Amino acid sequence: MKIVHINGYFKEDVVYQENLLTIGQAEFGHDVYLLSSCFEPEMNINIKKRKHKPGVYTYKNVTVVRIEEFIELKKNALILYKGLFKKIKEINPDLIFFHDCSFVLFRAVAYKWFNRNVIYHIDFHSDESNSMNSSIGVIYHFIWRIYFKIFSKQFSRFFCVSPEVVDFVENIYKIPRYSLEHLPLPGEIFNDDVHGSIKDRFRKNNGFKITDILLVHTGKMPKNKETKLVLETFIDLKNSNYRLLIAGSVDEDFKEEFNQYLKSDNRIFYFGWLNPDNMKELLVSSDLLVQPGSLSNIFLTAICCGLPILIDDTPQGRYLTSFGNGKLIKKKTVLDLKDLLIQMTSKEMLLFHKNSSIIASHHFDYKNIAKISLS
């Protein structure tokens, strides 16, 4: 089958959905194309070098087509392409997979009219917390409510990346819940056979003892990652065996404060921005992911590395910890987070680790997610 994915942005050295889902579908023998703009999603590490030249190239058996844009209306969100549907017509796909709502959906109606046999799938990423906190957001999503009221029959499947998104799409777009499928973000399984050697090497290279308990926190900080809560809790946690490993990018207006935290406690280690392989090595070598902030792809990456998780009490958090592989943070206070960390015994952590490894292969491996997306 010939499959076209349409996503506004693409960055090669990350493990986002558009990377792993397309790779998984290609590994099942499908002819997979990813149509994107010339932009990478903006991060602190690529602000001055996020635009590429238009063109076609192969990325892990996926054909990537970078298309020039008319304008980027909002960074990481709204972009208008030049000649997108001309490219689609040249490829002549059997299935088009739209990643979230964008203005290309209006043109998609016309394309479907002249190409009746093409199948449309769409996945949604918006939820109440990240999409309805401004008057513009309310208006924007009301437009899509009207769109799907008129054109929902053009689509064969509606995917939602989390339980929160299922609720949002049902309540805001008015698409019936029975039409919505929860398709979790995909992860990449880290082979259990090499866990021990990677952990030993990582700890030796970074001066950590086998008895050290390594807590890890990652992301674009601080934003809504609750990084300050994690730092303040850890500093209040006096156990000399604990280490806090932080990876990711730090906003300019938080750097000075962040550096003060680093100086105040020599048990805190900052690794900067890590590529996917190094990030997985960090996760495999750690004992617990502490991530009380917003929903993140790192939850799935951690589970796929066999890492127990300590995350916020949300529908997504309850789903991801329902397999006996972690705990929920009920209250976002230093006292409550500290108590949770103290209460987690070594025996419990070993059980969480075992369960994470089991559920990763059954539920979140990108190959399984790719199979479900085409079943």
Gist?
This protein is α/β, with parallel strands linked by helices and 375 residues long.
State the main characteristics.
375 residues, alpha/beta, Rossmann fold, 2 domains, 8-stranded mixed β-sheet, 6-stranded parallel β-sheet, 16 strands
Describe this structure in words.
- This protein has 375 residues and is of the alpha/beta class.
- It folds into 2 domains: 195 residues, 3-Layer(aba) Sandwich (Rossmann fold), CATH 3.40.50.2000; 173 residues, Glycogen Phosphorylase B (Rossmann fold), CATH 3.40.50.2000.
- It contains 15 helices and 16 strands.
- Strand 14, helix 11 and strand 15 form a beta-alpha-beta unit.
- The longest helix has 19 residues.
- The mean pLDDT is 92.
Total number of β-strand segments?
16
Low-pLDDT residue spans: none
Largest sheet: 8 strands, mixed
End-to-end distance: 12 Å
CA gyration radius, whole angstroms = 21 Å
Structural class by sheet pairing and helices = alpha/beta
How are the secondary structure elements laid out?
Blueprint: E1 2-6, H1 17-27, E2 31-37, E3 55-59, E4 62-67, E5 69-74, E6 78-81, H2 84-91, E7 95-99, H3 104-114, E8 119-124, H4 128-131, H5 135-151, E9 157-160, H6 163-173, E10 180-182, H7 195-205, E11 213-221, H8 227-236, E12 242-250, H9 252-264, E13 268-270, H10 276-285, E14 288-291, H11 298-304, E15 309-312, H12 315-320, E16 326-329, H13 334-343, H14 346-364, H15 366-374
Parallel strand pairs: 1-2, 1-7, 2-4, 7-8, 8-9, 9-10, 11-12, 11-14, 12-13, 14-15, 15-16
Antiparallel strand pairs: 3-4, 5-6
Helix pairs in contact: 1-15, 7-10, 8-13, 14-15
